[in-house]
Amino acid sequence: MNATDRLDVIEACDRFGWYADRRDWAAMTDLLADEVCLDYRALHGGDAATVTGAAAVAGWTTEFAAFRTTQHLIGNHVVALEGDTATCDAQVQATHVPAHGGPPWVLGGHYRMRLRRAGAGWRIAAVTFTPDWQTGVVPSAGEAGSTRATAQAWFDRVCDGAVAEAADLLGDDVEWVNFVGVPGHHDCMPWIGTYHGPAAVLASFEAFTSVCDVRHKELRRLVVDGDQAVGVVHEKGVARGTGVAFEIEYVETLTVRDGRIVRWKSYTDPCSIIRALRF
């Protein structure tokens, strides 16, 4: 067994827990193979599933939005190497602190990860988790896929600039109403309007970033009622053509069904952006 390969495999497995706890979903996507087999049958029931790495990350993002923080302690690795593939068995203790109070959900067990060599490193192609014990409150599937979890995941991704990943949370036929403008007054805002489907939504984001450079964006408040979510967002940026700064606060309303956003609408006073674009 090559010692360097063994250490690289162990580090890849450790990074799996680290990226999840830090919510570094871009790095997690790079760590996974193009397709990954997820087997959590011993924990949740159901069936093992082979999905794209991006789909796996999208699912975890939604689930992890139900927790204020998590910590995965992974150790006692046992590695088996065979050419360009590897298997790593490791023990894990995972603590999940609910986002809205209550005792943490703590479980211990072990991972079995299968990895494939990719260039100078290793990528994870399969994850099996087998629990040995658990304490605290186990979140239900309804909580994990709740309106709040989906909305929080949406705002986390958009505020981090991960727009393509955020689009994974949109329904296939999402109705997107980005401010209702007045002809002749808002023509300098090429991104506003009503769009349908994730591709059109992404195109509207590209239209926005082509003229505006966002320097700061944060969610200031999130209110949820049934399948409806309302977020208050604060944003600072600069108009690319003029170099003039703008600062706005706007409201996004989301309708969520089955963990996907099926309708989105924004409300704002765009005067600051219009001034920056026309200065």
UniProtKB/TrEMBL annotation:
Task: Tell me where in this chain the SnoaL-like domain is found.
Answer: 3-127, 152-264
Any one Pfam family here would be SnoaL_4
InterPro entries found in the cross-reference section: NTF2-like_dom_sf (IPR032710), SnoaL-like (IPR037401)
Which SUPFAM superfamilies does this UniProt record tie to the protein? NTF2-like
Q: Which PANTHER family match?
A: BLR2505 PROTEIN
Query: Would you tell me the protein name for this molecule?
Result: Nuclear transport factor 2 family protein
Q: Which organism is it from?
A: Amycolatopsis iheyensis
